[in-house]
Amino acid sequence: MPQELEVKPYLGTYARPLDEKRRLTVPSKWRTKGDDSENAYIALPNPNGCITVFPPKEVEIMYESARKSGDAEKKKAISKFFRRGDTVGCDRQGRLALPESLLAHAGIDREVFLFGDYNKFEVWNPAKAKARDAQDNTASDVDAWDSIF
Question: Of 22, 14, 12, which is closest to residue 95 (Cα–Cα)?
């Protein structure tokens, strides 16, 4: 019987090196009980030029959403993302082995920035991450903040 997973929000920004085997250490705050199975996460190429990593609980939600979608264009896009994605798991030290194809998509070599995105996290090339941060704090951010909080 599968172990019930804790749900924790992914918050914050972290700079991390990839190890010699090109594995990424997930911050301990972001690890969940039971995430050490080999297929615990789904990593997808994000059209913004990063890798988005979804935890086990979100994978179930994504699957249902994709399955129920009646929009042909949305299904086509979902199919494209899933074809280019992969399943990855944390080892006991909290490391993810992201596939080379996804690292290439994001332009990642040895260093990464991790951005918490509440129910998922993103893996960025540091230069792209800095450019993204420079574009943050727009008027639409203020509107979104006000509508949520």
Answer: 22
Tokens of 4: 């019930």
Determine contact, residues 124/113, Cβ cutoff 8 Å. Answer: yes
End-to-end CA distance of the chain: 39
List, for residues 15-52, the tens digit of each pLDDT value.
999 999 999 999 988 887 666 666 578 999 999 999 99
- pTM of the model as a whole: 0.83
Which strands sit side by side in the sheet containing 86-88, from one edge to the other?
13-17, 111-116, 121-124, 50-54, 41-46, 86-88
Strands (E), 7-137: 13-17, 23-25, 41-46, 50-54, 86-88, 95-97, 111-116, 121-124
Q: Find the radius of gyration of the CA atoms of the chain.
A: 16
Listing DSSP states for 76-103 in one string gives HHHHHHHHH-EEE-B-TTSEEE--HHHH
Sole residue written with tokens 């959403």: 65
Q: At residue 12, what is the residue type?
A: G
Q: Which residues pair with 50 in a beta bridge?
A: 46
